[in-house]
User: Fold this.
Amino acid sequence: MPLALGVLPRFVALHCGVTEERLRALGWDDTFAAAFAPYADRSVPGRVTLEHQKIYRISTADDEILARVRGRLRHHADRRDRFPAVGDWVAVSPAAGSGGEGAIEALLPRRSRFSRKVAGETTEEQVVAANIDTVFLVSGLDHDFNLRRIERYLTTAWNGGARPVLVLNKADLAADLPAMVRDVEAVASGAPIHVMSSKRGEGVDALLAYLAFGQTVAFLGSSGVGKSTLINRLRGDDRQRTAEVRISDSRGRHTTTHRELLELPGGGLLIDTPGMREMQLWEGSLDDAFADIHALAAGCHFRDCRHTTEPRCAVATAAENGGLDPARLASFRQLQRELDAQARRQDELLMLQDKKKNKVVHKAMRNVTKIRL
Ligand code: GDP
Ligand code: ZN
Assistant:
């Protein structure tokens, strides 16, 4: 029927348009679309919104499904890419898995990635959240205010590949607000600074600019700085109760347990996972978070100067004659030590793995020799 033929492509085109729009609302873009293309014949794209013991809740263009990783993906060469994290884009076959669950066929390359060391003695990286555009680094302007912690968070954010935004909350409790903001400006390395009181709802609206359609934001900050209160404000619902419940908890335990990617009514996406909230330094450089020290380093005598005990170090000189806050240099050195230690541990692990591999190869070769004899 010519009529049906004429109608069908239009219907498909219309449907695709709706699908595309829905995916973009979830953060989809052309780069992800290109990465997904090889899987298009047997799966659909979806974004991981929740993870619980290797079962994933995934938002696709027209559904929300539960899925597990297929065996093939589990044996991916890079350990970090074996399992998806909240925020990841995946290729998923909705009903191909067992028990009505979907099967995750592939993990699409990440635009940004936040990792932490797996708890315990292992030196394994665990990705806690992926594909974040902006990280709100939340601090309280009360007694808990700590510039050194801000430097640490900035380092983590730059290294994760997302844009950091400094959120200074509890402005209503600030002892000397202008002085505190000046101090933060000195360590911000150009990151935008927003002062607010989530409790009073002041200054919160300015943050909505980072939560435009399809944009993903995550939160980093110590416990008690006001992240939940802020998230509730941004969500604009009555989940304020969350904080109140926690206050009334006699042992001061955390009662919030969300670990997910949430869509805001206005169009943005929030990632709120406990793992993201307590990020530790993992790997990377201090160049972005300490742009001032990086610039001063151009004047050091040695090109690979570490600014510790080297002679004719421009950074140390600046710290001596007022060009650089000595406390900031101390903080830089501390973070550098931590990154070095982490890198050493990773090197050791790689060597161990190599040794193990060699052992297996040697054993196999011995067996071959035996068979030949
Ligand atoms: P989280 O641990 O970072 O999620 O912090 P919460 O959102 O649970 O807040 C911890 C406490 O700080 C709660 O008692 C909040 O009511 C309070 N709080 C949050 N924001 C503000 C603020 O802007 N000003 C004041 N004075 N208190 C705040
Ligand atoms: Zn130096």
